[in-house]
Amino acid sequence: MKQIFGVILFVFIGIVLLWFGFTLFFRFAMPGFGKTTQKRQGPQPKSVGNPGDPQICPVCSAKLREGETVSTSAFPSLNGGNDRFMHIKGCLYCLHGNRDRVCPVCGDRLTTSEILISRLFERPGRRSHVHVIGCTNCKGPRTKA
């Protein structure tokens, strides 16, 4: 009888430890114990704005919420000044395919691998300014045929 009680106790402790491990590392929850995970359809922007306005994605014109950012890569300045080149990939809405990616200069649709080429002007004491030059199609590398 003691052996059966010991086995049942170890099985119960194992189940509790497995549940705790899953909730700690994978955020699963048992029904009725705390919050359960909900599946979302994907991120949806709050609204659409005009390109160039603050907190607007320059690729898809989605109005970004608090804490949402645009994926960029800024390069060192070539002339030692306050301006440098920057590649803009897009926000989470257009990178995941939920919105159309459009170049604000030429109006062409962009694929997920295409980027916007821009210049970043750093202004001391104020917010930086970004000027979009174009996409990889209209302002990209030119080869003479």
Q: Could you characterize what this model shows?
A:
The protein is α+β, with helices and mostly antiparallel strands and 145 residues long. The chain has two domains: 39 residues, no CATH class; 104 residues, no CATH class. The protein is 19% helix and 17% strand. The chain is built from two helices and four strands, in the order αββαββ. It is elongated and about 80 Å long.
Which key terms come to mind for this protein?
four-stranded antiparallel β-sheet, elongated, 2 helices, alpha+beta, 145 residues, 4 strands
> The biggest beta sheet, please?
4 strands, antiparallel
Question: Fraction of residues in helices?
Answer: 10-25%
Strand order of the largest sheet: 1-2-3-4
- Report the strand count: 4
- SSE string: HEEHEE
Radius of gyration, Cα only, in angstroms? 25 Å
Task: Decide which structural class fits the backbone.
Answer: alpha+beta
Strand content: 15-25%
What's the structural domain tally? 2
Q: What is the count of DSSP helices, taking H or I runs of 4+ residues?
A: 2
User: What characteristic shape results from the CA principal axes?
Assistant: elongated
Q: Quick check: average pLDDT? A: 78
Unreliable stretches, pLDDT < 50, 5 or more residues?
Answer: 34-42
Distance between the termini: 89 Å
Concise summary:
With 145 residues, this protein is an alpha+beta fold. The chain has helices at 2-25, 92-95; strands spanning 71-74, 83-90, 116-121, 129-135. The protein folds into two domains: 1-39, no CATH class; 42-145, no CATH class.
